[in-house]
Design a protein that fits this description.
alpha+beta; about 80 residues; 1 helix; globular
Length: about 80
Amino acid sequence: MERHLFYDEMGNEVEFIIKAQFSVGDIDYVAMMPAEDLEADTYILRIDYDENGEAFLAGVGEEELKVAVEVYEELLKENLQ
């Protein structure tokens, strides 16, 4: 699993493990968890792009999250088989 360093809204460094990157239609998502707590919840965020084409992570709404979680869970099941 890949480790990436991110900065929270207060500018603090937080290391995350990227568990998966996947798509739902033409929207890309990343599933990630804090590196220091492997028992923590997995976060699913949308990969968006700014006007310069630079990627950034964005939160998702409740309905969008439900769909993304379903796809992610199916991906996990497929990888276990």
